[in-house]
Amino acid sequence: MKKTEENRFVMGISVSNPSTNDLRGRQSVRATFRLSEACIDAISILATQLGIKQKSVFDHLMENDQVLKNVARALEGTEFDRNKRIQKTFVISRRSLSFLDMISSEYNAPRDSLVEYSVRRLLPIIAKERKKHEKRKELLAEISNHFAKSEKLLSKADQMLGTDDPIVNKLQTAMSVYKNAFDDIANFIDRGKIIEKFHPE
Fold first, then answer.
1. Is 114 in a helix, a strand, or coil?
2. 108 or 1: which carries more pLDDT confidence?
3. Are residues 78 and 25 in the same domain?
4. Distance of CA 144 to the CA centre of its chain
5. How far apart are CA 200 and CA 191, in angstroms?
6. Which of 96, 133, 148, 197 has the most other CB atoms within 10 Å of its CB?
7. pLDDT tens digits along 24-53
8. What's the domain count of the chain?
9. What's the DSSP call for residue 71?
10. Could you tell me which residues are beta bridge partners of residue 92?
11. 49 lies in the same domain as 139
12. Of 80, 97, 121, which closes a domain?
């Protein structure tokens, strides 16, 4: 995801005239939560599949105070079993943490619960990304086959014309770029394999 797209995902940033408070709010801080394994995996999946930082996922979740308030209201009377949770430290923006603390205090809702149930709102995005992941794997098989054929073509051109031939040189340059792109695609899909085993509670 490009930087401009990440900014849209984060929302609410005044790019034209950022104030001192805006800039301070964007400072990174560490915050520790006790979350379910599924929730931690969901945050990692969203960051990987959308090509953004985990900090941006938290910004998106926490900076819409109205949605956060709705989550807090919905949590009223809900039991939250901390024994089944894993302690995990995340880097988030100071502003996100401030919003989270404010809503937690105002509605007497545990921070961990607010994070957990806020992340669950994004499960439909993960469902879409799972489908995309399967399609990407199908395409990777075709790309791999095409790349192998291209390597054979380069080898054939080398045998016919010699390594110093300008056509062979052009093909070598093209194949070098192709290999970098192919490796990037394969690595991206490999990192996304976590989504195959993801099963929300």
1. helix
2. 108
3. yes
4. 25
5. 19
6. 96
7. 556 889 999 999 988 999 999 988 888 889
8. 2
9. H
10. 29
11. no
12. 121
**Residue span of the structural domain in which 55 resides:** 3-121
User: Are both 54 and 100 inside the same structural domain?
Assistant: yes
Choosing from 81, 103, 121, the residue where a domain stops is: 121
Percent of the chain with pLDDT over 70: 83
To the nearest whole number, what is the mean pLDDT of the chain?
84
pLDDT at 64 (0 to 100): 76
Which residues, at least 6 apart from 19, have a Cβ–Cβ distance to it below 8 Å? none
The residues near 13 (Cβ < 8 Å, ≥ 6 apart) are 7, 22
Task: Take residue 56 and report the two structure tokens written for it.
Answer: 């941006």
With 0-12 / 13-18 / 19 or more C-beta atoms within 10 angstroms meaning exposed / middle / buried, residue 186 is middle
Please give the model's pTM, rounded to 2 decimal places: 0.68
d(CA 142, CA 8): 32
The whole-number average pLDDT for the span 160-166 is 94
Tokens for 200, please give them: 């929300």
User: In sequence order, what are the beta bridge partners of 30?
Assistant: 91
Give the whole-angstrom CA distance, residue 121 versus residue 106.
21
Burial class (CB in 10 A: 0-12, 13-18, 19+), 88: middle
Residue type, 152: K
40 and 105 co-located in one domain: yes
3-class SS at 79? coil
